[in-house]
Amino acid sequence: MQRFKIWDLPTRLFHWLLAVGFAFMWFSAETGGNWLAWHIRIGSLLFGLLVFRICWGIWGSDTARFRQFVRPGRIAAYLRGQVGESEQPGHNPLGAMMVLALLAALAVQLVSGLFAADENTFIHNGYLNGLVSEAAGSAMRSLHMAFFNVLLTLVAVHIAAVAVYRLVKKQNLVTPMISGYKFLHAAPKLRFAGAGAFLAAAAVAVAAVYALYQV
Q1: What string of DSSP letters covers 140-154?
Q2: Alpha-carbon torsion 191, 192, 194, 200, what sign?
Q3: What is the mean pLDDT of residues 79-106?
Q4: Where in this chain does the record put each Cytochrome b561 bacterial/Ni-hydrogenase domain (predicted)?
Q5: pTM of whole model > 0.90?
Q6: Which of 46, 110, 143, 170 has the least CB density, counted as fewest CB within 10 Å?
């Protein structure tokens, strides 16, 4: 087996920044008080990360592009062991569904938080709360609080799947997401996006966060 580059730096940074951000958002929401101000601020940054990941999934590197790794039709073949890692070295067909589920759940959680009303102190409303009625803001708050359990469940399933791959299939999925490299039997045919693509995705993300602060 040989060592090949699989994950680019932007994808890896997104993954770990999102993990840290998720942990902080959980902590700050449970702690409350003055931490809620930071809960909202970091939430806006996570919104920027999500926008970046969507852009990167459209014009980023091959292992990050949705059209390259989201292939539901291959799930059955993968479960039968007919899809090799060199053929789809990044997210496998089954893992791709988890990626989409996590991104979709994250989008619901972030957007509901942006519109949510603070019904306790009335000073930590979401950045976009002023655009909706009081009833809508209250509904978004309820959704934001209830849907977190769905997101938490998906995260738990994701972590459990990584553990199963490590213990049962003897595949380490964590180290490649840190180093960017994975050991494979054959060289994968991958194209990695350049600085221009990264700057374009980052610019869209920054503009999206900036727009939140202007509302």
Answers
A1: HHHHHHHHHHHHHHH
A2: positive
A3: 89
A4: 7-180
A5: yes
A6: 170
